[in-house]
Design brief:
Order of helices and strands of chain A: HEHEHEHEEHEHEHEHEHHEHHHEEEEEHH
Distance between the termini of chain A: 13 Å
CATH architecture of chain B: Orthogonal Bundle
CATH class of the largest domain in chain A: Alpha Beta
Number of strands of chain B: 2
Structural class of chain B: mainly alpha
Number of domains of chain A: 2
CATH topology of chain B: ABC transporter involved in vitamin B12 uptake, BtuC
Distance between the termini of chain B: 29 Å
Largest sheet of chain B: 2 strands, antiparallel
Radius of gyration of chain B: 20 Å
Oligomer: heterodimer
Helix content of chain B: over 70%
Order of helices and strands of chain B: HHHHHHHEHHHHHEHHHHH
Number of helices of chain B: 17
Radius of gyration of chain A: 22 Å
Largest sheet of chain A: 5 strands, parallel
CATH class of chain B: Mainly Alpha
Shape of chain A: globular
Largest interface: A-B, 26 and 23 residues
Helix content of chain A: 40-55%
Structural class of chain A: alpha/beta
Strand order of the largest sheet of chain A: 2-1-3-4-5
CATH architecture of the largest domain in chain A: 3-Layer(aba) Sandwich
CATH superfamily of the largest domain in chain A: Response regulator
Strand order of the largest sheet of chain B: 1-2
Number of strands of chain A: 15
Chain lengths: 413, 350
């Protein structure tokens, strides 16, 4: 406690020195900004298995948010000079750790956005806490970010494993698939998903016959599928993601389990996965989706803009990054500074709507952003009317039901 | 191949000792090196400077084995990583100042190295490299599976950096560098003492002609084990500083690619030179940092190409080649009638 005070004091002193050195910035817009500018950094996978799902598209989405902010406020904007920078963490926690430190210290980033891969996101959260700078996570799912490992400067914007399990696990069980076998990649995300799914399935009156860990990443799932099929479950739940999921689904479809009446439920699915494998491979699969580009006019209009910029339709992670950057800029506008504590104060507790957040609330107690989510079904090839038209939205899960309550998160800041 | 390079370098070394003009030059070098070490965080980003210094000691520690004992260890990540984890755990759970944690990590690395060394030194050459690689992988998987302790895939996060309550050192990478540098310099000094002691001379004798060393009555295996454990201890010092500097320990520290990287650094700089490790670490870390911040993906591609070029063009490594050229030039200056051929492989006879 004592050392925290001293540290805060030292930070304030350093800040004052820096400000003195900068002569107070340009001052044209009246705001109080370090170095006279605002720096948004996107830290994600620019080259590996999660490149398509967020990657360069998320950087573009953040740039779109900056453009919209500038357009909305024009001369009234509290800061003119807004920079968007990015870095590649290759899904490795140690690289994410080093890059986050660099972004905050060397590039003067005021906020880090995105950060897929749960272990990497946890490392960045620690850096955010130490540097007293913001981190809004969009693409990592672990509940620890806003649970046991939560901190004042970290927000979780789009989804978490609880939400995925609660939507898919509960609904599929209630629809009659009572007996489950789970197959999961043996690292933070897979372990957390399995815990959340088991809880949701049991809560809905189902049973989990077994949970089978696999290496990560992995190519050959045949033995795991055979093992899972041997207990004759109603459904096999796979927690694989990205490239692994694609292999898993291909091998499930070839295994003959489908013909024996065993269904496949997918823990985390992104529209980019469906796109790369084709709707026919996934047709009929139910899953929970935080956002879909073709839900309504507003999302479709935004998706058109995104496609114009990047050539593809947006995944929910792209839209989430846009929303996070936009809400951050709005908070900066209200706070008139880039000082993290002031901006956190503006964000926490805010209820808002935008293209991504429907009935959104940035919960003050654990910094989890709750919003309406959706149970989706993959269309049959005959139902697809245009490119990227892959999903039917079955039901809307209201924000309060979709996410854990603040008490359940177990966060104390 | 390694063997032949080793032998040539050893001759160069012996040559240098005989020529004897090395003393003054050594002081100039030492002073230059010290100034460079102190100036480094002013010139490059401080955490990168810390990485360079830690990798330099790592490479020097490995050079005791490769360059001076003729043992190519391909499992040194086991000591680098296990010390990093132990340092991280001590710092996290006991709240001691970081140098204490680092020493604890280094001691742990030495304890771990003892059985590994005992079993590995029964083989030499490529077999020794493979056995150490296998041990390295075993340690890696222990770290991976024992996730309750090591955090598994998530790594050991939020390692504190305590230093007697001195706030600047604990929070600012720039000041931390100066607090941690003495530990690394001490390690380098220890390495220098080891290779220039009678013990080090025995190691060189074992490297150059093991049967003869045995015939002279030296317990070859014992010497190799001691050299291995000392090397692991110095590696541990470097690994511990690395862990504290990053405030984070990842599985990568135990991965075989880390062993590969340090072998590359040592060969790049020039084996059997000690200074080569420092130069190699500076080049490789700076190159990786430059490529990473330029947004270029193929870091391994470039370092690999550089490595191939160095092996083709500078058989003795960069430092080794420069050193050799310098000696040749000196030789020619002091005795102009001698040809270079005399100066090269055999050296002057006493």
């Amino acid at each position: 406690m004592k050392s925290m005070h001293i540290r805060a004091g030292a930070a304030a002193m350093t800040g004052a020195l820096l400000l003195g050195a900068c002569g107070g910035g340009p001052g044209a817009s009246g705001g109080d900004f370090t170095g006279g500018k605002l720096v948004l950094a996107v830290l994600n996978d620019q080259s590996g298995v999660y490149k398509d799902a967020s990657g360069p598209g998320s950087v573009k989405a953040v740039k779109m948010a900056v453009a919209d902010y500038k357009k909305k406020y024009g001369d009234a904007a509290v800061v003119d000079d807004i920079e968007v920078t990015s870095a590649d963490h290759q899904n490795k926690p140690d690289i994410a750790n080093t890059k986050a430190q660099e972004l905050y210290e060397r590039k003067g980033a005021d906020i880090i956005l995105d950060v897929p891969t749960s272990s990497a996101a946890l490392a960045v959260a620690t850096q955010a806490k130490n540097h007293h700078k913001l981190f809004i996570d969009v693409s990592a799912a672990t509940t620890q970010l806003t649970g046991a490992r939560c901190n004042k400067y970290t927000f979780q914007w789009a989804y978490d494993t609880y939400m995925l399990a609660n939507g898919t696990g509960t609904t599929v069980t209630e629809n009659g698939d009572k007996n489950w076998q789970l197959i999961y990649p043996d690292y933070e995300f897979g372990q957390d998903m399995t815990k959340s799914f088991t809880k949701a399935i049991k809560g809905a009156g189902g049973t989990v016959q077994g949970a089978i860990p696999t290496p990560f990443p992995n190519d050959n799932f045949a033995t795991f599928l055979t093992k899972a099929g041997s207990t004759k479950p109603d459904v096999i739940g796979t927690m694989q993601a990205g490239g692994d999921l694609i292999n898993m689904v291909k091998q499930f479809n070839a295994s003959g389990l489908k013909e024996k009446g065993i269904d496949l439920a997918v823990g985390l699915m992104l529209i980019t996965d469906i796109h790369s494998l084709g709707v026919d491979q996934f047709a009929g699969t139910m899953f929970t989706d935080p956002w879909y580009w073709n839900m309504d006019k507003e999302t479709r209009a935004w998706a058109d803009r995104f496609q114009h910029e990047t050539g593809t339709r947006p995944s929910f992670e792209h839209a989430g990054n846009y929303s996070a950057a936009l809400q951050y800029l709005e908070a900066v506008q209200r706070a008139k500074t880039d000082k993290a504590d002031a901006v956190v104060g503006e964000l926490a507790g805010k209820k808002t709507n935008d293209v991504f957040l429907h009935n959104g609330e940035i919960r003050a107690k654990d910094h989890l952003v709750i919003h309406d989510t959706y149970l989706a079904r993959v269309k049959k090839p005959s139902q697809v009317k245009e490119d990227w038209d892959y999903e039917d939205i079955v039901t809307t899960i209201p924000a309060a039901k979709a996410f854990p309550t603040a008490e359940e998160s177990g966060c104390s800041m | 191949m390694t063997q032949s390079v080793v032998r040539q370098t050893s001759v160069t070394e012996a040559h240098a000792a005989i020529v004897g003009s090395g003393s003054r030059r050594r002081w100039i070098l030492l002073a230059t090196g010290l100034v460079a070490a102190l100036a480094l965080p002013w010139l490059v980003y401080p955490p990168v400077a810390m990485d360079i210094a830690a990798m330099a000691l790592f490479a020097i520690a490995l050079d005791i084995l490769i360059g001076y004992t003729g043992l190519l260890s391909f499992g040194h990540s086991a000591f680098w990583g296990s010390s990093a984890y132990m340092t991280g755990l001590i710092a996290t759970h006991y709240g001691v100042p970081f140098p204490v944690a680092v020493v604890g990590g280094a001691v742990f690395a030495m304890v771990l190295a003892l059985p590994i060394a005992y079993l590995s030194v029964r083989r030499s050459g490529i077999y020794f490299a493979m056995v150490t690689l296998a041990f390295g992988q075993m340690v890696y998987f222990v770290g991976y599976q024992w996730s309750g302790l090591t955090g598994g895939e998530n790594g050991l996060q939020g390692v504190p950096r305590r230093f007697f309550g001195i706030e600047l050192v604990e929070t600012e990478s720039f000041y931390f560098y100066y607090a941690a540098l003495p530990i690394l310099l001490l390690g380098m000094w220890a390495a220098w003492r080891i290779v220039h002691s009678p013990f080090g001379r025995v190691l060189v004798a074992i490297r150059d002609n093991t049967p003869r060393a045995r015939a002279l009555g030296y317990d070859v295996e014992k010497y190799k084990v001691i050299a291995f454990v000392l090397s692991a201890g110095l590696t541990g010092l470097a690994g511990g500083v690395f862990a504290i500097s990053h405030g984070f320990v990842a599985l990568t520290t135990l991965h075989w690619t880390t062993s590969g990287e340090v072998v590359l650094i040592t060969l790049l700089g020039g084996i059997g030179t000690l200074w080569g490790g420092i130069l190699g670490a500076f080049l490789v870390v700076m190159l990786a940092d430059y490529l990473a911040s330029s947004g270029f993906d193929g870091i391994d591609l470039v370092t690999g190409t550089v490595f191939v070029l160095v092996v083709l063009l500078f058989r003795r490594g960069i430092w080794g080649t420069v050193h050799h050229q310098w000696l040749t030039w000196l030789q020619r200056r002091t005795s102009p009638r001698r040809t270079q051929a005399d100066a090269d492989p055999a050296g002057p006879r006493p």
